[in-house]
Amino acid sequence: MPIELTKVNYVTAATATGGRAGHVTSADGLIDFDLAQPGSTPEPAVNPETLFAAGYAACFQGALANRAKTKGIDTSDSKVTAHVSFGPSEDGGFGLAVELEVSIPGVEQAQAQELLELAHQFCPYSKATRDNIVVTLTAV
Predict the structure, then answer these.
(1) Confidence band (pLDDT; 50, 70, 90) for 40?
(2) What digits encode the pLDDT tens for the residues 45-92?
(3) DSSP assignment string, 42-94
(4) Nearest CA to 37 among 23, 21, 25?
């Protein structure tokens, strides 16, 4: 059963034309660029997986900071890297997988892994992907 919002704090929008090799713009104009499929151009290009990785990494770091604060731990020097994989899935279509690689300087490995698990329960991106794709949490 979906979890419903009890209040809307923010609304944004983005528009895509031309699919994976098209163009995207955000309602606020901050995003406005062409997309390309990985490997389809000699130059690196933005694709939907790049955008998803950026959003997930930023959201997860916010969730990490929130959960760590409840335990009196400072994660302001932490770094979250979202590795997003795209490929054929067992249902015959295509899908995503994510590895969240997190570095929290000054925090022991076991405690860092505990914080990752707490953040994963709290993060809106994690909630949206839960039971839909494989998400691996790695404390480094």
Answers:
(1) confident
(2) 899 999 999 999 999 999 999 999 999 999 999 999 999 999 999 999
(3) SS----HHHHHHHHHHHHHHHHHHHHHHTTT---TT-EEEEEEEEEE-TTSSE
(4) 21
Residue found under tokens 């059963």: 1
The domains found in the chain, sorted by start residue, are 1-46 (2.20.25.10), 47-139 (3.30.300.20)
* C-beta neighbour count of 93 within 10 angstroms: 7
Which long-range contacts does 2-8 make (Cβ < 8 Å, 24+ apart)? 3/127
Structure tokens at 8: 């809307």
Q: What is the pLDDT of residues 53-65, one digit of tens each?
A: 999 999 999 999 9
Query: Sign (positive/negative) of CA torsion 74, 79, 84, 90?
Result: negative
pLDDT of 39 strictly over 80: no
C-alpha to C-alpha distance for 57 and 72, rounded to whole angstroms = 22
Query: CA torsion, points 30, 32, 33, 34, in degrees to nearest 10?
Result: 140
pLDDT at residue 105 greater than cutoff 80 = yes
Which contiguous run of DSSP H or E holds residue 122?
helix 109-122
